Structures are given as structure tokens and as C-alpha cells.
Amino acid sequence: MSEIEIKNLTKIFEIKGHKVTALNDINLSIEKGDIFGIIGMSGAGKSTLVRSINYLEKPTNGTVYIDDVDLSLLSERELRIKRREIGMIFQNFNLLEQKNVLDNICFPLEIAGVKKKEARKRAKELLKTVNLTDKEKAYPSQLSGGQKQRVAIARALASKPNILLCDEATSALDPQTTDSILRLLKEINETLGITIIIITHQMSVVTQVCKNVAIIDNGNLAEVGSVDEIFENPSSDAARELLSGKEITYKPVESLNTKRKIRIVFKENSAYEPVISNMILKFKTPVNILKADTKNVGGKARGEMVLALPEEEGIAEDIIEYLKANGLAVSEISEEI
Amino acid sequence: MLDFFKGIFTFWDSKVIIMILEGIRDTLYMTLGSTIVGYLLGLPLGIVLYVTSAKGLRPNPFIYRTGDFICNIIRSIPFLILLILLIPFTRLIVGKSYGSTATIVPLVICAAPYIARVVEASLNEVDTGVIEAAKAMGASNLQIIFKVLLVEAKTSLFTGFTITTGLLLGYSAMSGTVGGGGLGDIAVRYGYYRWKTDIMIVTVVLLIVIFQIIQNLGTYASKRIDHRKH
Ligand SMILES: Nc1ncnc2c1ncn2[C@@H]1O[C@H](COP(=O)(O)OP(=O)(O)OP(=O)(O)O)[C@@H](O)[C@H]1O
Ligand SMILES: [Mg+2]
Asked: Nearest Cα to A238, choosing from A223, A253, A257, A219?
């Protein structure tokens, strides 16, 4: 079995007789050593899902297995001990404001009953890992957001977990700091072999570090697969919507949206070939480029472009054929860009 | 002005001075005594209210509502009336119903629910995210209470402590009207019944000074222990 097995997980919240299905029959397997993204729009159920993995949220139905242990069968005490194997970081860092950096990192060890001297030694090692050795006596209020998240990561690693859960860990950070935190997470995954689960609503976070991804839409698992696969060939509406980068909204020119639109993804080599200009030369019709972007997907450069096709049906079909023949992934989209 | 003070010191014999010194001692004894005993009852009660509330660590509507009800009832009775109502109870506990030790009883009964509320409010201020993080680390509820809540809320708890002490200083003086002892008692006996205005003024000034000292010490200390702002 995989390291994390989520089986038929359903969570229904009941507020004053009103029922909200936050998660609906989710099945997921996450392998050891993976960096697994869980992405979805706000309110999709991502936080509920990640909180179910350490059983902070008890499922209404279904269960979670961690290393073949069914969490639903554990007592409160056993569950608390199990949670030490699962680190967690948050959007708002959630550091203890009245404790300095070193004591914050020691905190999970203090809870686990580790001797103070030993805990301090481990905390100092971890400060090296997250590159913050000069801040051990500082208080959280004296740190920047990125530094706070580094402390939170060190704290989450203190009890030597096998799994690290990140709930919107970069959402409160600027793009540069986000990059550096994501790089740190990747490094931790590679050097310590910790399985990392990243919850986010930003596709860029997923494409930057995740190997696999699950897309959650309104409490349902819309799609799951390798980031490569889904980036190239999204099969669900939710995936396409997230890929089209709705978070960056700008009003399209009305007439452009009346045409058929396709999204093409350039693979490694083809990104350097002038496919589009060749295509225009060949068909002698102009196409409108609605959006063009390059992304770093799992360390490989990927280009992404959205084109509005000419009105004539014949030519539109030919263009699609031509692009496919040139090794590009092509999918037709209906969303507004 | 100078003549007035000279007048006081020549007029006052050592008996009056000793009486005032004893008044200060009794006032401090009642105030600090009732604050400390009040906290021995109120702090755990406040923690129970926090823990059993709907969003608490272990919600329990029955316990919460019971505690809530008792707190509200006691707090809605004016202190002077409580003082009189509690006379039989006070007599039962300390053997008499007058004097400074006896006054501590109604002061504590009055203070405990107030303290519970202040403590509950302080704990409510602790960021739920921090509690969530502690749970994710595998902390038990007791560990969360003692290692997270009370530590993170310490500044606010301390401010509450200062305010409570100030309040009980005032109430202890009020108890002077029914023979409670301390500076309030002196002010009432000399100032009100015997028209010795000078003694009354001195006791009032002393009460003000003591209050200021408590408040400033409290403010200073709570700033010193706070690590949130630098
Ligand atoms: N404790 C709760 N009580 C009631 N409803 C809840 C609770 N927690 C979550 N929900 C509901 O469950 C749904 C999913 O919430 P969740 O927090 O998991 O979403 P999310 O994907 O993390 O969203 P966001 O990106 O905004 O953080 C929402 O409709 C939310 O209102
Ligand atoms: Mg969330």
C-alpha cells in the first residue's frame, strides 16, 4: 500500500441543521517521497482534506491509512503519537508569539517529552537546514513572513516526521519569498525523503515543485495524475479553469471570445521551434494569441499558449491537426480567457 | 497649605499615625489576599469556561451554561448587597463577620466570577491557528492549556490581574462601611461619623497612591513580559 491512502473520505459539516458536504467520497494514494499537490478553488475542501490526513478533522465516512495504519482505529492518545510523524505548516505560520525562534522549534519536542538539552541541539541543527542560524534568539514579531515560515518548517521537522503537510504555506508570501520557500521544501524532500503534501490555489506552486497533483472541485476529486500529464492534457473543467489562470483576470476583447479557442502546450524541444510562425505561413491566415506563458513544470520549461482560431471550420480543423502533428499537446477550451 | 500639613502633624498623635499605618497594612492584606484567593478559584473556573465553550478544546454545553449562569448571577449582585447577604456564610468560615479577614470572604466571592470572565476573555484572544498547530504536533488538551494558552495569553492575563487588583482595592474600601477594616473603614469612621476631614483626606490620598502604584507596576510588568511588540 502507499504511504498515505485516503479511502472513500466524506466529510459533512452540520451547522444549525444545515448540511455542507465539504468532501465527497475522495480516494487518493500518495506514495512515499512524493511532492503531492492538492489544488482547488476557495472553499473546494482542500483544508478539510489535509486536516483529515492527520485526523484533526474526523471524517463522516471513510478513513485514512498512514503506513498501513487505519487512523480511525486509533485512540486519542495513539493518534497524538501518530501526529508526531506528520509535520504541518500553515498560511499564517502559527508560531508561538511569546517564545523565541529556538523555543518554537523545541516546542514539539517538549510536548513529546524530549530532554531540553537534546531538543536544543536538534533545534540548532534545524536552524541550519532552514538557513536561519542568526535568528535563534529572535521573537516571531521580529521576523519577516518568509523567515517565519522557515521557523515553522524547522518546527514541523523537529520530531523527524515522514510526512509534511503544507496548507497554503506560501499564500501569504510575495512571489520571490514563495520561490525560496518552495525551493526549501523541494530540498527537504530530496535530502530527507519526506513526503510533502502541498495545498494551494495557485497553479504556479504546483507546476514549480509538485510531481503529482489532485484537483479538488466542490468537494469532489476532479482529476489526479502527474503534473506533466495534467498540465498537458487537463481532462476536467476544474483543471482547465485552474490552468487558465483565472486568478489573473483581465477583460478579453469581446470579438476574440466568439471564436473557437485552443490551448497548446509546448514540450521541451518544440518550445524552440517556430511552430506558430510556420503554421501562419502554411495556412496564410492570422491567428490571435490570447495568452502566452512559459512555466517551469517539474524543472522543465513548458510553454503554454491560447489561440483564437479562424472562423472557417476547415482551416481551424487543419490547424489543430497541424499542431498535433508537430508534437504539441492541443486541447480545445471554452472558458473565457 | 503648609500650615494645614503642619497642623495635621502637630495635631495628630502617634495613635492616629499607627492607626493609619495599620489601615494601609489591612487594605493591602484584603486586596492582595482576595486577589490571590480569587485567582485560585477564578483562574481554573475561567479555564473551564474556555475549554467547555462551543469553540473550546472540549465543548460541553451543560458545564459551560452552568458556569456561565453562576458567574452572571453573582456578578449582577451589587457588592454592598453581596457583603450583607454573605454575612452568615462569612461567620461560618472565619468565625466573625467584621474585620479584614472576614471581608476577604465576600471580596473573593465577588471577585472569582469576575476573574473567571477576565481569564476566559484573555484565553479567547489566543489565535486559534496556534492551538491548531499544537494539536497537529500531537499536544494533549492539558499541554495546550498549560504550554500554549496560558503562555500565549500571559500579557493579557497579567493586565486582567492588575485591573482586578485595582477593583478589589476599591471594594475593600467600600467594605469599610460595614466594619471591614483598612483605610476605607478609617475614612468612614472618622470622616463620615466624626467629621475629621483631615483624616479622611489622608486616607483617600493613600488609596489613590496605592491604586496608582498597583496600576503602574502592572502596566510596566505586562510590557516587560510581552514579546509580541518590539
Ligand atoms: N468547521 C467547519 N464548520 C462548518 N463548515 C465548514 C467547516 N470547515 C469547513 N467548512 C466548509 O467546508 C467547505 C470546505 O472548506 P475548506 O476550508 O476545506 O475549503 P478550502 O478549499 O481550504 O478553501 P480556502 O482555499 O478558502 O482555504 C466550505 O464550504 C466551508 O464553508
Ligand atoms: Mg483552506
From this structure: A223
Distance CA A183, CA B24 (A): 65
ipTM: 0.86
Residue A309 carries which DSSP code? P
Greatest pairwise CA separation for chain A in angstroms: 76
Distance in angstroms (rounded) separating the CA atoms of residues A173 and A251: 26
Nearest-Cα distance to chain B for A249, in Å, is: 31
In chain A, which segments carry CATH 3.40.50.300? Answer: 4-233
Higher local confidence (pLDDT), B49 or B5? B49
Report which residue type is found at A82: K
Q: Is A58 on the interface with B (CB under 8 A)?
A: no
Each residue's pLDDT tens digit, A184-229: 999 999 999 999 999 998 888 999 999 999 999 999 999 999 998 8
- Give the side-chain half-sphere CA count within 13 A for B203: 34
Question: Using only C-alpha atoms, what is the Rg of chain A?
Answer: 23
Contact B132 A94 (CB under 8 A): yes
Nearest atom within ligand 1 for CA of residue A57: 1
Tell me which residue of B170, B175, B169, B165 sits closest to B81, measured CA to CA: B175
Cα dist from A192 to A50, A81, A164, A317, A330, whole Å: 21, 21, 11, 49, 38
Q: Where in chain A is the domain with CATH 3.30.70.260?
A: 247-333
Q: Which cell is A99 given?
A: 517564545
Around Cβ A19, how many Cβ atoms within 10 Å? 9
- Angle ∠(A288,A293,A297) on CA atoms, nearest 5: 140
What chain A residue is nearest to B135 in terms of C-alpha separation? A56
Looking at residue A173, what DSSP letter applies? S
Residue A280 CA, chain-centre distance (Å), reads 37
Query: What's the Cα-to-Cα distance from A112 to each of A70, A116, A119, A290, B97, rounded to whole Å?
Result: 22, 11, 10, 55, 51
Contact A111 B147 (CB under 8 A): yes
B95 grid coordinates = 468565625
Contact yes or no for B138 and A97 at CB 8 A: no
Q: Which residue has the higher pLDDT, A122 or A231?
A: A122
CATH architecture assigned to A247-333: 2-Layer Sandwich (3.30)
Closest listed residue to residue A330, CA positions, set A313, A310, A305: A305
CATH number for B11-229 (one of 1.10.3720.10, 3.40.309.10, 2.30.22.10, 3.40.50.1370): it is 1.10.3720.10
Q: Is the pLDDT score of A62 beyond 90?
A: yes
User: In chain B, where are the structural domains located?
Assistant: 11-229
pLDDT (tens digit per residue) in A78-99: 999 999 999 999 999 999 999 9
Contact criterion met (CB below 8 Å) for A227 and A37: yes
Q: Which fold has domain A4-233?
A: Rossmann fold (3.40.50)
- DSSP code at position B147: I
